Structures are given as structure tokens and as C-alpha cells.
Inverse folding.
């Protein structure tokens, strides 16, 4: 997938999330289904994930190459990255459950700030994606806590899927038949 298409898809998935958020009662920010993340926790998780990636992409390219090496294979496509992530989630359910318990619950007063940060981090990632060369997108790797080393192109495509994944979780968890 070309970088312009990835950037456009990142914007599209982010807009779907914000459209859903705008249609929800603000009370859901702190309230959620039993043993599930609240809306606020989902957004905090997405913000943290984007910020970590943007921070990594701020390092000089030579540092990333030195620290993590380079890729010795073709970059995977979007569908493969998404499918592999879903498989890893199933295999590592217990690990994910333990990780999920540690996430703090943002208060209602943090809502506007976190939503703003989510938009800013998303725009930063789109900007960085458009500026990085195709060679660096496909040769430099960054470690993902669940997926292992991924090319920068793959990890940005994963970020697109990650946003969609959490949007779908929110829609499912807060559907009227599941949450009343």
C-alpha cells in the first residue's frame, strides 16, 4: 500500500472513530460495560500508542537502523498485517488481559484534552509518513510489543487497523443490546 493511501486510510479510520464518539453520551467516557475498558480508556490507549510511534519516528534514521536493524524481507500488505495482529491477540489473550488491567481510567475532565491529543498525534503520524522515503518505510524496523519487529510501513498500517479495531470494540461494547 502506497504511503498516500495509508495516510488517507489513517484519516478515514480516525474520522469514523470521531463520528462514533460524537454520537455517544459523554457519560460513557467513565462508565463502561463490566470488565471492559471505558471510552476514556480506549482513547487513552490509542493516544499512547500513537505517541510512542511518533516518538520512535522522531529519532534519526541511522539510530533506528543501529538500534533495531533492517528488514530482510518484503513488507507485508495491510490485510496480512491486520490478520496477523488478530491472530496474535487470540494467542496472547492472557497477556493482553494483564496489560489491560494496568490502564488508568481517565476522568471526564481529561476528555477534551485526550481527544485533542488523539487528533494531533494522528496528524503528526500522517505528516511523518508523507515525509519518510519509501526505502526507509520498507527497510527500517521498529519493535511492536505483540508482533515483534515490523517495518515502518507495516507498523503504520497496523496503526490504521488498531484504530479500526478499537472503534469496532467501542461500537460492540456500547451497542444498545450489550450496554443498557
Amino acid at each position: 500500500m502506497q504511503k498516500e493511501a495509508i495516510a488517507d486510510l489513517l484519516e478515514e479510520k480516525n474520522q469514523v472513530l470521531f463520528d462514533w464518539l460524537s454520537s455517544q453520551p459523554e457519560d460513557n467516557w467513565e462508565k463502561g460495560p463490566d470488565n471492559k475498558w471505558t471510552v476514556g480508556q480506549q482513547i487513552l490507549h490509542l493516544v499512547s500508542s500513537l505517541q510512542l510511534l511518533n516518538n520512535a519516528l522522531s529519532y534519526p534514521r541511522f539510530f533506528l537502523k543501529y538500534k533495531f536493524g533492517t528488514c530482510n524481507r518484503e513488507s507485508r500488505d495491510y490485510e496480512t498485517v491486520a490478520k496477523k495482529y488478530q491472530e496474535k491477540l487470540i494467542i496472547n489473550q492472557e497477556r493482553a488481559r494483564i496489560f489491560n488491567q494496568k490502564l488508568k481510567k481517565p476522568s471526564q475532565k481529561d476528555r477534551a484534552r485526550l481527544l485533542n491529543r488523539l487528533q494531533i498525534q494522528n496528524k503528526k503520524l500522517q505528516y511523518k509518513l508523507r515525509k519518510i522515503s519509501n526505502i526507509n518505510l520498507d527497510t527500517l524496523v521498529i519493535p511492536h510489543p505483540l508482533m515483534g519487529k515490523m517495518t515502518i510501513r507495516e507498523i503504520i498500517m497496523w496503526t490504521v487497523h488498531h484504530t479500526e479495531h478499537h472503534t469496532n470494540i467501542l461500537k460492540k461494547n456500547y451497542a444498545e443490546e450489550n450496554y443498557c
Observations:
- The chain has eight helices and two strands.
- The beta strands are 141-144, 148-151.
